[in-house]
């Protein structure tokens, strides 16, 4: 079943490609299942079942194949990041609900979307499974040929029809080059894996691909904790103090790297789509402007109509300029959010390792275990969704341009609606502020009304200043006349004990009526701050935008809390070091006391300080 976007292209575009990408997605499940079956055959099951006794040839084969360890993967992190990046185009199409393999009633669309997402996941499963498998030669060969097949199919689809009806020239190149680059990287990675595994197999090199119970950077972190800190700390640069300081004893797990890579590529795709929509809307506005010019010529220069047309042209010019400027501002904001979330992850993990939970709401200090397990599964998808699809709103498209309608289909599949991503919310907020600044300050100066603008600005600042000053005066009067003296001379402030009670009651009475009006302004300011901060931080899943006491309603923040607690319990360097020492003692003394531990690598670290 073709989506609305694919159907429109195949029926209305003169350039037809012999490659149907959705059909390729369906048929890719066949080699994907074959690769999973082969890798499963090499995987050994820890526990044997009754079927092993009946079929002796199984001998523990056909174990469970995992795509990647979402909890403790610190090797092949960038390879997994590029594997996630290769799925970016399909992820964007899933977000827009454009890929629905079955036609069902609206009430069952959630189930169909789950089926579509599962199909996409199975199609790209070999990328991750071949990177994760311990059988390097088999995984690298299967992964190389599967990736090469996708690479050739994508190149063929682009070469046969590089242009499109939506974006025009080189449309597919613009959209598919990030995924192509990721596929090309994976080809090189699988080739390198094959060479290294072959050298190890031929006894020409020593394998260093074992899964270590304790990673090197985790052991270094614990050694740094028990080592005496230096008396003189090294001088930090401005970048280290204000932006980011690299820590050799900390590594981000593969889940965080892959999530960030996929979020950046999906963000790029959406910004490109938004830019082309802007171009088409600008063309429509130019046509509207020309029609107003024609109407102006036919009206014999009516002053009212001339003024309206001039104001409309000015509004069009202002909105176009501000929209372009805020496109870069919103893009930089969202890109900075992706990296800032990584920095916050490291900061929060280090605080949890140190036993500090004060940065979390009180009710989040002990999240439920089931919530943490579910959070580790939700986090990657939800983080990308919060950056791209922070909230949704729909409106019908009634524009005349055919290209704009096609872009809408591209974004939303069969539905004639727009889904507003978190990026676009930030963009719209910045755009509104930009237009407000233009009409408040820039345009009055251009029209020779700078003096009137300065006069009005001065009156506004003076009004706000007087109101703020009166609030400060109330505090100063309360401190000077209505509080008892300090108990000790060294006290920082006076005790909360009333003095001059009769004067205090008169003070409260006469300021009661004025504070009603002052409170109205404070209420409006509070509402404005809530709206601005709420929309500005909509993509920040690491920070709740709910007020204190209502954090439980923020499902994104709860997912973040559950995720960091899951990582805290399973990747805590101190806990892992303790377990590693127990395993080392078991090996040295051949004790059976800790028989349940299983050190797969047997790797030892030098714990000397």
Automatic annotation (TrEMBL):
List the transmembrane segments. Answer: 24-42, 107-129, 141-159, 174-195, 261-278, 322-345, 384-402, 422-445, 457-479, 512-539
GO cellular component entries: plasma membrane
Annotated GO biological process: vitamin A import into cell
**Where is this chain's protein located in or outside the cell?**
Cell membrane
Q: Keyword Cell membrane, does the record have it?
A: yes
Q: Please provide the record's keywords in A-Z order.
A: Cell membrane, Membrane, Receptor, Transmembrane, Transmembrane helix, Transport
Keyword Cell inner membrane part of the UniProt annotation: no
Lipid bilayer topology: Multi-pass membrane protein
Q: Which Pfam families match?
A: RBP_receptor
List, alphabetically, the InterPro entries matched.
STRA6-like
Q: What are the protein's GO molecular function terms?
A: retinol transmembrane transporter activity; signaling receptor activity
Record's protein name: Stimulated by retinoic acid gene 6 protein-like
Q: List the source organism.
A: Gopherus agassizii (Agassiz's desert tortoise)
From the broadest rank down, the organism's phylogenetic lineage runs: Eukaryota, Metazoa, Chordata, Craniata, Vertebrata
């Amino acid at each position: 079943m073709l989506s609305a976007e694919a159907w429109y292209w195949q029926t209305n575009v003169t350039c037809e490609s012999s490659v149907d990408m959705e059909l390729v997605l369906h048929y890719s499940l066949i080699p994907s299942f074959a690769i999973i079956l082969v890798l499963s055959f090499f995987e050994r099951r820890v526990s044997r079942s009754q079927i092993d006794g009946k079929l002796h040839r199984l001998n523990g084969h056909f174990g469970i194949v995992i795509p990647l360890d979402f909890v403790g993967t610190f090797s092949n992190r960038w390879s997994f990041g590029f594997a996630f990046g290769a799925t970016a185009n399909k992820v964007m199409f899933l977000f827009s609900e454009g890929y629905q393999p079955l036609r069902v009633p609206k009430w069952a669309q959630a189930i169909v979307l789950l089926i579509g997402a599962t199909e996409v996941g199975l199609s790209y499963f070999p990328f991750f499974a071949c990177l994760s498998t311990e059988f390097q030669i088999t995984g690298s060969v299967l992964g190389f040929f599967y990736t090469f097949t996708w690479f050739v199919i994508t190149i063929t689809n682009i070469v046969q029809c590089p242009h499109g009806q939506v974006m025009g020239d080189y449309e597919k190149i613009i959209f598919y080059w990030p995924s192509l680059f990721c596929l090309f990287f994976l080809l090189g990675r699988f080739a390198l894996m094959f060479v290294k595994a072959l050298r190890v197999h031929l006894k020409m090199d020593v394998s260093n691909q074992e899964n270590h119970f304790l990673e090197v950077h985790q052991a270094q972190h614990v050694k740094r904790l028990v080592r005496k800190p230096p008396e003189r700390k090294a001088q930090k640069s401005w970048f280290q103090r204000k932006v980011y300081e690299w820590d050799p004893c900390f590594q981000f797990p593969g889940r965080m790297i892959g999530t960030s890579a996929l979020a950046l590529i999906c963000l790029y795709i959406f910004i490109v789509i938004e830019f082309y929509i802007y171009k088409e809307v600008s063309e429509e506005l130019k046509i509207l402007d020309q029609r107003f010019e024609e109407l102006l010529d036919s009206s014999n220069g009516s002053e009212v109509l001339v003024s309206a047309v001039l104001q409309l042209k000015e509004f069009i010019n202002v909105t176009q300029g501000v929209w372009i400027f805020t496109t870069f501002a919103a893009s930089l904001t969202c890109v900075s959010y992706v990296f800032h979330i990584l920095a916050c992850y490291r900061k929060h993990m280090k605080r949890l390792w140190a036993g500090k939970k004060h940065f979390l709401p009180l009710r989040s200090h002990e999240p439920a275990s089931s919530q943490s397990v579910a959070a580790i599964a939700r986090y990657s998808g939800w983080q990308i969704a919060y950056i791209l699809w922070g909230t949704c709103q729909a409106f019908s498209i009634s524009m005349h341009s055919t290209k704009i309608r096609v872009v809408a289909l591209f974004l939303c599949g069969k539905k004639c609606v727009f889904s507003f991503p978190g990026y676009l919310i930030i963009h719209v907020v910045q755009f509104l502020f930009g237009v407000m600044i233009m009409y408040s300050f820039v345009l009055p100066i251009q029209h020779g009304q700078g003096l009137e603008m300065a006069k009005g600005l001065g009156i506004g600042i003076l009004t706000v200043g007087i109101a703020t000053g009166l609030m400060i005066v109330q505090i100063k009067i309360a401190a000077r006349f209505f509080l008892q003296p300090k108990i000790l001379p060294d006290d920082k402030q006076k005790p909360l004990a009333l003095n001059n009670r009769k004067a205090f009651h008169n003070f409260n009475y006469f300021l009661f009526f004025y504070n009603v009006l002052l409170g109205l302004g404070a209420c409006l300011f509070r509402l404005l701050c809530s709206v601005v901060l709420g929309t500005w931080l909509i993509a920040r899943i690491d920070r709740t935008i709910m007020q204190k006491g209502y954090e439980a309603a923020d499902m994104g923040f709860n997912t973040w809390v559950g995720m960091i607690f899951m990582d805290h319990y399973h990747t805590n360097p101190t806990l892992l070091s303790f377990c590693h020492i127990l395993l080392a003692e078991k090996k040295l003394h051949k004790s059976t006391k800790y028989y349940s531990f299983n050190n797969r690598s047997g790797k030892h670290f030098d714990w000397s300080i």
